[in-house]
Specification:
The protein is 29% helix and 24% strand. It is an alpha+beta fold and 454 residues long. The protein has three domains: 90 residues, Uridine Diphospho-n-acetylenolpyruvylglucosamine Reductase, domain 2; 121 residues, 2-Layer Sandwich (Uridine Diphospho-n-acetylenolpyruvylglucosamine Reductase, domain 3), CATH 3.30.465; 188 residues, 3-Layer(aba) Sandwich (Vanillyl-alcohol Oxidase, Chain A, domain 3). Strand 8 and strand 9 form a beta hairpin.
Length: 454
């Protein structure tokens, strides 16, 4: 984009939108282009912080008029930085965080920039909850549109299974409602298709009665990792819907890696104590514990490992089961990581999430499985070797987990080079999703917005 074109876009937007507009050299521009992953250093031509749906539509149409790429920033948590586009227009929804709870109807109505915390905190205050990711600062809409694994997946399904309807801005500026009585095909595509088919300016989520949960995190020494993860596998084999358990490796109290288990029990607390007890006997704990707490408090556990400004690289595999070979690969990965801020995480997909038909949503993988996340996190060192070794570690662990893995992978974690795996992940739904893409965005305007293009 030429400087003249950029100035023209900026001038039009300043004249037409209510929210602030930043261009390069403006005070606040660097803050406006900052996202969760400090490794992302993209320089959009214009950032528009939209204060209402009208701003979003105006910014979209101006970008289209000038023929420049655009991207949408919600929570800004995409590790690959797809919330920003070099030389393009960023539609920043981070000011759109209003949430209304209708306790009687069991519905949370949230603007498109709302974070997980913005939804779960007021819902918990009236004894309700919904399925979310395990980090409070993730954008609710972005997380939901691609899936939304978390501690309530066994009880309530994925976050996208709880998406009731959405206000959507299509690529031509048309504003529609995706829902059972609006546009059911658009709702189908949103439930797993990411941002490929439209910009969600508001959404409504199903809420469920939810009191205190039984949860926490227990750390075991890395020397006991193989035995602990084998025991974890045995617990998963008989886990009821109310019990969803994460596991993996985090930085331990001695500065090295420690193996962890992190249960979430969302049923009767007395029954939960018996269900969780085997997880406390998998080895000799070195830290942590389990107890009753509000769900919003439980999902604070991983905030320390998801600090904004660190540099991140992610990889992933879908594992049909946690084999001995996979356990060995994870243990070796933890022993070789380059930063104690790194993380290996296993999410159990089971229960209610598996009882949704594969063609009911764009998210097609409905068999029981384990989602493996490989997360390198580090602080840059000007005198160090740069990011390449951290990326190589992620790729190495992901490759070691590949034998026996299911095709494809979780789109929210796959990177720009993984388009083939994204399509495989949609399975038999891929052609239908591509047809929806052609219907709702025939000119491919929103390709840069998508978690990944199918």
């Amino acid at each position: 984009m030429t400087q003249t074109t950029s100035s023209g876009i900026g001038a039009r937007l300043r004249a037409q939108v209510r929210g602030p507009v930043w261009q390069e050299h403006d005070d606040g521009y660097d803050d406006a282009r900052r996202v969760w992953n400090g490794a992302v250093d993209r320089r959009p031509a214009v950032v528009v912080r939209c204060v209402d749906a009208a701003d979003v539509r105006t910014a979209l149409l101006v970008a289209r008029d000038h023929g420049v790429p655009l991207s949408v920033r919600g929570g800004g948590h995409d590790w690959a930085g797809r919330a920003l586009t070099d030389g393009g227009v960023v539609l920043d929804l981070s000011a759109l965080r209003d949430v209304e709870i209708d306790a009687g109807a069991g519905v949370a109505a949230a603007q498109g920039g709302a974070l997980v915390a913005d939804v779960v905190d007021p819902a918990d205050a009236v004894g309700l909850g919904t399925a979310t990711a395990v980090v409070r600062t993730v954008g609710m809409a972005g997380m939901t549109l691609a899936g939304g694994y978390g501690g309530l997946v066994g009880r309530f399904g994925l976050a996208l299974d709880n998406l009731l309807s959405a206000d959507v801005l299509l690529a031509d500026g048309t504003q529609v409602v995706a829902g059972p009585t609006g546009d059911p095909e658009l709702l189908w595509a949103l439930r797993g298709g990411g941002g490929n088919v439209g910009i969600v300016t508001a959404a409504r989520y199903r809420l469920h009665p939810l009191g205190p949960v039984l949860g926490g995190m227990v750390l075991y020494p890395k020397e006991q990792a193989v035995g602990v993860l084998r025991g974890y596998r045995e617990v998963l084999a008989t886990a009821p819907d109310e019990l969803t358990v994460m596991a993996g490796f985090v930085g331990g109290p001695d500065g090295g890696a420690a193996v962890y288990v992190a249960p979430t029990w969302s049923g009767d607390l007395a029954a939960g104590e018996a269900a969780v007890a085997p997880l406390l006997r998998l080895g000799t704990p070195v830290a942590g514990g389990v107890g009753p707490m509000p769900y919003p408090e439980l999902i604070r556990m991983f905030e320390a490992g998801a600090q904004p400004g660190q540099h991140y690289a992610l990889g992933t595999r879908w594992l049909p089961t946690l084999t001995d070979d996979a356990i060995e690969a994870l243990a070796e990965g933890a022993a070789s990581w380059l930063s104690p801020s790194s993380l290996l995480a296993l999410h159990h997909f089971h229960g209610a999430a598996t009882r949704v038909a594969p063609d009911a949503t764009a998210f097609a993988l409905r068999q029981e499985h384990v989602l493996a996340e490989v997360i390198a996190a580090w602080r840059p060192d000007p005198a160090g070797s740069g990011p390449a070794p951290h990326h190589a570690w992620v790729e190495g662990v992901a490759e070691a987990l590949e034998p026996g893995a299911l095709p494809g992978g979780y789109p929210n974690i796959l990177g720009p080079a993984d388009a083939d795996r994204v399509r495989l992940g949609f399975g038999a739904n891929a052609d239908r999703l591509l047809a929806a893409k052609r219907r709702y965005d025939p000119d491919g305007v929103l390709t840069a917005i998508a978690a990944m293009s199918p």
